[in-house]
Amino acid sequence: AASSVPAQAAPADATIVSEQRLDPRLQELTIDAPALAAKSKVRVLLPDGYRSGTSRRYPVLYLLHGAGGNETDWTVAGAAARATAGKPLIVVMPDGGKAGWYTDWSNGGAGGPPAWERYHVRELIPLVDRRFRTVSARRGRAIAGLSMGGFGAFSYAARHPDLFAAAASYSGGVDLNAELFGQPIGKIAVDGSLALAGFDGVTGAVLFGDFATENVLWRAHNPVDLAANLDGLKLALYTGNGLPGGPFGPDGQDIIEIGAHEMNVNLHRRLARLGLPHVWSDYGPGGHTWPYWRRDLRRTVPWLMRRFAHPRPAPRQVTFTAVEPTYEAYGWQVRLRRPNAEFSTLSDARKRGFELTGSGRALVRTPPRYRPGARYVALIRRAGHRSDDVRIIEIDRIRATRSGRLRVRLHLARTNRLDEGSPRAAGGPPRSATVRVAIRRKAPRPFAAHREEP
Predict the structure, then answer these.
(1) CA atoms in the 13 A half-sphere facing the CB of 306
(2) Spatial contact of 161 and 233, defined as CB atoms under 8 Å apart
(3) How many CB atoms lie within 10 A of CB 6?
(4) Most CB atoms closer than 10 Å: which of 58, 196, 387, 399?
């Protein structure tokens, strides 16, 4: 079974072991990271004037490296200091493992370590917010990365949209299920990066699960599958097409960038179908090399600073899709009881109600938007195959908690025994049901429990 999605940064339990100042702006932290069961290094670029003694707080850009790299890449090869010079911005560049792929490794179902997502999201972000004068809220936090780090940036943003205001990817591996010439280039990219990093005999199955039999666990992290979760974020995709003729080469075809281009086209088309605005920079001939990524970063920084200067509030109506049986987004919490891994979706979630699609039994906990101690009713309807086939099946009377939250229990479709997409599953897609919940202060007079609408 897949692990829970921590959509909010939980209290940190990582600690700083040492700090080294490398130049007036750059320092390096060594962190004892429980999620990794090891120490990990992070480089931090501070803005000019940070040490002047003022109390000013600054937005943060989390900048992720690619396969085979580490926390030094963006300052040694990526010219991050030059790109952010003079900008009121903190840049955090963590290690993500030579082929960590910004996920909590499956390890045959045993889980991490290494648990890279848990480290970055639940340990590092709170630690950075404690140690530095950050704008410690979604409006002051963005994420970007190259290649494997581009996947990490969009995967983290899609799985934790309430943590980031913007996300950018440079030649990112943003579609793990992409195919090119009939070959699964997402899987090939993951397996190849592990081999190049020296993980003898280790394949992507150790990270995400078996690609054929547990593909839903790959999709649980895949930006293309989770693209709808990105609503409300400022987004940018930069990619070349791997052909010769660009200003920085290559001389011949760059097969890695050709694959990355296919992945980015898939995500661009998915975002367009969803109506989600985004920067689409398909700059034609160009390779999978640092000169392009340095240029991408230079172009991204002013774009990010405009978002930080004019932040947008969180969406009023939340839609969030996940494979895990427990997840959270923008204060909405869903817990499902089912034996398998499959997608479920919380949609149109707002103060007046929500919809939930999936199987099994569910407990939905709302954000603290209600009067503490007040009584409410939830009108629970089940949507059928036709848009007009909707009937009330239950009226649930609820009292808001002291914090102003409501807890709504639901029955969805009968549970599925096998994971979604499993080759052993027969008879079409898994059973699924959509339940609509309307929340009112008191029950409307025309209806009673178990009474069907005409």
Answers:
(1) 6
(2) yes
(3) 18
(4) 58
Query: How is the beta sheet containing 90-94 ordered, strand by strand?
Result: 15-21, 26-33, 38-45, 90-94, 60-64, 141-146, 166-170, 234-239, 279-282
- At 269, the amino acid letter reads R
pLDDT tens digits, residue range 186-220?
A: 999 999 999 999 999 999 999 999 999 999 999 99
Tokens 């979630």 label which residue?
349
Tokens linked to 191: 């397996």
> Residue 286: pLDDT band by 50, 70, 90 thresholds?
very high
Strands, sheet with 390-399, edge to edge from the N-terminal-most edge strand: 318-322, 344-350, 353-358, 433-440, 375-383, 390-399
C-alpha pair distances (Å), 178 with each of 167, 284, 341, 352, 429: 20, 20, 21, 39, 21
Query: Which residue(s) pair with 437 in the sheet?
Result: 354, 380
Instruction: Give dist(CA 301, CA 238) in Å, integer.
Output: 13
Tokens 């909590």, located at residue: 104
Burial classification of residue 197, based on how many CB atoms lie within 10 Å of its CB (0-12 exposed, 13-18 middle, 19 or more buried): middle
Could you tell me which residue, 385 or 249, shows the higher pLDDT? 249
* Measured distance CA(341)–CA(324) in Å, rounded: 7
User: In this predicted structure, which of 81-90, 105-114, 298-307 has the lowest mean pLDDT?
Assistant: 105-114
Confidence check: pLDDT of 159 > 90: yes
Q: Taking all residues of the chain, what is their mean pLDDT, rounded to a whole number?
A: 92
**Residue found by looking up tokens 């070349």 in the block:** 240
Instruction: Write the burial class of residue 137 (CB in 10 Å: 0-12 exposed, 13-18 middle, 19+ buried).
Output: middle
Q: Band of the pLDDT at 139, cuts 50, 70, 90? A: very high
Residue 8: CB partners within 8 Å, gap ≥ 6? Answer: 160, 162, 163, 328
Omega prior to 250 cis, within 30 of 0: yes
Residue 259 CA to residue 241 CA, distance in Å, equals: 8
Tokens standing for residue 26: 């750059």
**Whether the predicted pLDDT of 11 surpasses 50:** no
- Cis status, amide bond into 114, omega within 30 of 0: yes
Q: How confident is the model at residue 445 (pLDDT cuts 50, 70, 90)?
A: low
- Report the half-sphere exposure of 74 (CA within 13 A, side-chain side): 32
